[in-house]
Design brief:
Helix content is 44%, strand content 19%. It contains 23 helices and 20 strands. Helix 9 packs across helix 11. The strands form five sheets. It has a six-stranded mixed beta sheet, sandwiched between helices. A six-stranded mixed beta sheet has the order 14-17-18-12-19-20, sandwiched between helices. The protein has a three-stranded antiparallel beta sheet with strand order 2-1-4, with helices on one face. It folds into four domains: 1-79 and 164-265, P-loop containing nucleotide triphosphate hydrolases (Rossmann fold, 3-Layer(aba) Sandwich), CATH 3.40.50; 84-161, no CATH class; 323-541, P-loop containing nucleotide triphosphate hydrolases (Rossmann fold); 562-634, Valyl-tRNA synthetase, C-terminal domain (Helix Hairpins), CATH 1.10.287. The chain is globular and about 90 Å long.
Length: 636
């Protein structure tokens, strides 16, 4: 049952950062218990509106009215940089000073568990404990523990070692411990795997507070939203109901708007022709009609046109051979834990294959094996002929912050070649909805979705007949997401797609490779929904096996296992730090290997060549020792 009255009301809100306002004297309201999805193009101002509601930005004009006593919490998109504490510390920070006191108590408890703890540590812990008792801090302590348990978070993990998925869940837990009346979620599903997204859906469906959330995940949106609010050209419009109802209503509105605009332009053109008639017409002209024309001119000048749809296209290479990839009895793992065991598949030209599995299950590793970039521990991979591969990996694909948007795509050239034709870089970027001002500007001014579009713009300058996409959909607005989806469906080449977007998988792929734990990778016909219907029902009721992560990702640490209970505090800390060590060594290994692969490198002095070669050997030895130590600490 909803409470009476409005929880939040925004009236005539305006915010401007440039020539055109992001919010233009607009308003809306939220009732208690509503779940409202905020939609809009990348850069339209959705995150700005979130910050206004959270009190982080003051509007240039207008008022924001919150029900007396109501609390608002916002889930940011990024973890705080260089945060020095643990997951527990960051979650408890949501409670302010009391939370920081809880964090201090948690740190001291860990120190007391160390046999080297001193009397000073015990004394400090006793003092903090007394302060918590005086402030009823144990109630808050239980609230933090409940949030950690509900979201399966490793409280002792340093935030700097947290994977993207753990980071998102940590920020959500921080918001929930505040028990807000209104929770603001900005792209909450980014970096979460499918299971984590479904768990978040269940949690938010059970939660009694009001939600205002931004998402690109259509399945998440469809399941959660009770109303949709769209931000378009500075104005907010409300659409009761779910996403499917919104789509139909919005399509009808846009058609009516276009028809009205065409009628307005015809009337304006007719009046402009009339006012420019000869002397006789000017002598007899109606002054009221002249004033009406002047008003039409002002209205036309003030009209903000809806931004056009993206219109980019894939650049096709020559056709590959009929066989693209054949893998036979692939086995691969790290530290004794199998990622892939006994996997075989045949991928033919034109196949569109999805890879589904938890974060850290080995999807990116398997991609690299299938592409011949990594040699499996056992088994064989055969690649077809005439393959031209374009690989999108937004976590590793780097943009140069010191260069403009245009320079990041063209490398400083005025033109790019697309499908055999030279195009000016400004014209090409316009297809990706970048204005000339944005194209000349720094990429630091871009939103997350705009950066993703820029990565796609750079990728699509490369001819390809095998397109490999590792999480391409994060932060894209709905229009761009749906265009990319259609391009992949129409693409004549082969597609390998890693995604946690269930609707995207359903609409694009014809088969799915699913990581089911303990090295089992099984192939199913269809996308995500097809797999859910086909998978063994027993798999849902059985506890999930511990997952080993690919060396390029931060391993997920199980929170409660018999093995962990036997480790000393120092060993636990070492185990937590090993993923960062492995990641650093792998990055150096990759850099040194690239250097040694460059023919120009061997034109320098022999001492420099030998020094680099020896360093690579040393790094590889360190990496092997790190993996061995990780396996040793992970074993029961």
């Amino acid at each position: 049952m909803r409470q009476q009255g409005l929880l939040l009301t925004a009236r005539n809100i305006s915010v401007s950062f440039g020539a055109e306002p992001v919010l233009d004297r607009t308003g809306f309201s939220i009732e208690p218990g509503e779940r409202v999805c905020l939609l809009g193009r990348n850069g339209a101002g959705k995150s700005t509106l979130m910050k206004v509601i959270a009190g982080e930005i003051r509007p240039d004009e207008g008022e924001l009215l919150l029900k007396p006593g109501a609390r608002v919490a916002r889930l940011p998109q990024e973890l705080p940089r260089n945060y020095p504490g643990t997951v527990y510390d960051l979650v408890s920070d949501g409670l302010g000073e009391l939370g920081r006191l809880l964090g201090r108590y948690h740190q001291l408890s860990a120190a007391v568990a160390d046999s080297d703890s001193t009397a000073a540590v015990l004394s400090d812990m006793e003092r903090v404990q007394q302060q918590l008792e005086a402030l009823d801090g144990w109630t808050m302590h239980q609230r933090v523990d409940a949030a950690l348990s509900r979201l399966a978070l490793p409280g002792d993990m340093p935030v700097q070692q947290a994977s993207g998925g753990v980071g998102r869940r940590t920020l959500l837990a921080q918001a929930l411990v505040q028990q807000p009346d209104l929770l603001l979620l900005d792209e909450p599903t980014n970096h979460l795997d499918v299971d984590a997204i479904r768990q978040m859906e269940e949690l938010l469906l059970d939660w009694n507070g009001a939600l205002l959330f931004i998402t690109h995940d259509r399945a998440f949106l469809q399941r959660l939203a009770t109303r949709i609010v769209e931000l378009d050209r500075g104005t907010l419009r409300s659409y009761p109901g779910d996403y499917q109802r919104y789509q139909q209503t919005r399509e009808d509105e846009l058609a009516a708007e276009e028809k009205a605009q065409q009628q307005f332009q015809r009337e304006l053109a007719r009046e402009e022709t009339w006012i420019r008639q000869g002397i006789k017409a000017r002598r007899t002209r109606n002054e009221g009609r002249v004033r009406a024309l002047q008003a039409m001119r002002r209205e036309n000048a003030a009209r903000r046109e809806r931004q056009g749809n993206a219109s980019f296209d894939l650049q096709n290479a020559e056709r590959s051979g009929r066989l693209v990839i054949r893998a036979e009895d692939i086995h691969h793992g790290f530290g004794g834990a199998p990622l892939v065991a006994g996997f075989s598949t045949t991928i033919m030209r034109g196949d569109k294959v999805g890879l589904i599995g938890p974060n850290g299950s080995g999807k990116t590793t398997l991609l690299n094996i299938l592409l011949g970039r990594m040699t499996p521990n056992a088994g064989q991979v055969r690649l077809g002929t005439n393959l031209e591969v374009a690989y999108f990996d937004q976590l590793r694909e780097q943009l140069d912050d010191s260069r403009s948007v245009a320079e990041n795509v063209s490398g400083g050239s005025e033109n790019v070649t697309v499908n055999g034709q030279s195009r000016h870089i400004m014209s090409y970027l316009r297809d990706f909805l970048f204005t000339p001002e944005q194209a000349r500007g720094p990429i630091t001014a871009l939103s997350g979705g705009e950066r993703n579009r820029l990565l796609l713009a750079r990728l699509f300058t490369c001819p390809a007949n095998l397109l490999v996409l590792d999480e391409p959909t994060n932060d894209l607005d709905m229009e761009t997401l749906e265009l990319l989806e259609q391009l992949l469906v129409d693409f004549q080449g082969t597609v390998l797609l890693v995604s946690h977007d269930r609707a995207f998988l359903d609409n694009v792929v014809g088969s799915s490779l699913v990581f089911e734990g303990e090295g089992k990778v099984r192939e199913y016909v269809g996308g995500y929904s097809d797999w859910v219907r086909q998978r063994p029902q027993a798999a849902e009721s059985q506890p999930k096996p511990a997952r080993a992560a690919a060396p390029s990702a931060v391993p997920t640490k199980p929170t409660q296992t018999p093995a962990r209970a036997k480790l000393s505090y120092k060993d636990k800390r070492e185990l937590e730090q090993l993923p960062a060590v492995i990641e650093r060594l792998e990055a150096e290994q990759e850099s040194l290997s690239a250097t040694l692969a460059d023919p120009a490198f061997y034109q320098q002095a022999s001492d420099a060549i030998q020094q680099t070669t020896e360093r690579l050997a040393a790094v590889e030895a360190e990496l092997e020792r790190a993996f061995e130590r990780w396996a040793e600490l992970e074993q029961p």
